[in-house]
Amino acid sequence: MKQYDFPKELLIILLLLVPMIYLGIIWPHIPEMVGTNYTTDGVPGRIGSKNEVLLLMIFLFLTNFLLYCLFRYIPKTDEMPDHTSGYRRAYFRTRFLIHLYLAVYTSLLIFLIDIGKEFLLERWAFVGVGLLIAVLGFYLGTLKPNNFIGVRTPWTLLSTAVWEETHKMASRLWIIAGVVIMACGFFMQVVAAVFVVIVIAAIISVLPYIYSYRLYNTNQG
């Protein structure tokens, strides 16, 4: 990591940690049993243990952390030449906004727990992540070939046509994944929904890679 990048990376890391620190502070005061999925009449749809709250928060933290690793280490920004400083700044702003969104969103959910307003907790946790994935999916569909962000496989970087087709596919895939993740919050229990989201995360990460490989080799005949 270049020296002038260190303060920026530290800022993003702090955004990752703030919600978990906040949760650690209020954790002793959270009741053992917590009502979730409230109806419009203010009646909890079910009562769960506070360990389920912890599972949801870990899920949100890991989502934030995985996105950090994805955007921090792919591409290797340390190797970007100096003349790309404008792209570097734009790339950092994109990363910063993603992590700021998740930090604020997670902290808001924790605040609602802290004041005893766990209204639709499970639903909103998955809606927030699903919405982010869908927005990123739309963003993928607008990307032009570059060495900084997107589905940067050896085959998309070698062919503009493969880049465009792969990103169209990845865009649709991520948008659908976002909608499915949002639906998980409404129709599934926490543990099952988290498991489904992990599977979805693997699919949307691996499938565009495989697709670009197959498409490139098909085009090459």
* Measured distance between first and last alpha carbons: 41 Å
The fraction of residues in strands falls at 5-15%
Average pLDDT for all residues: 81
Number of strands: 2
- Going across the biggest sheet, name each strand in turn: 1-2
The number of distinct structural domains comes to: 1
Outline type: globular
Pick out the low-confidence regions: none
CA radius of gyration: 20 Å
Strand/helix succession: HEEHHHHHH
State the secondary-structure class. mainly alpha
Can you count the helices? Answer: 7
- Percent of residues in helices: over 70%
How does the major sheet shape up?
2 strands, antiparallel
Domain DUF1648: 14-61
GO biological process, one term: response to toxic substance
Transmembrane segments: 12-30, 53-75, 96-113, 125-143, 173-206
Keywords: Membrane, Transmembrane, Transmembrane helix
Please give a structural write-up.
Residues 14-61 form the DUF1648 domain. The chain crosses the membrane at residues 12-30, 53-75, 96-113, 125-143, 173-206. One of its GO terms (biological process) is response to toxic substance. Keywords: Membrane, Transmembrane, Transmembrane helix. By secondary structure, this protein is mostly helical. The protein has one domain (3-220). Helices cover 72% and strands 5% of the residues. The protein contains seven helices and two strands. The protein has a two-stranded antiparallel ribbon with strand order 1-2. Strand 1 (33-38) and strand 2 form a beta hairpin. Helix 1 packs parallel to helix 3 (85-114). It starts with 5 loop residues before the first helix and ends with a helix.
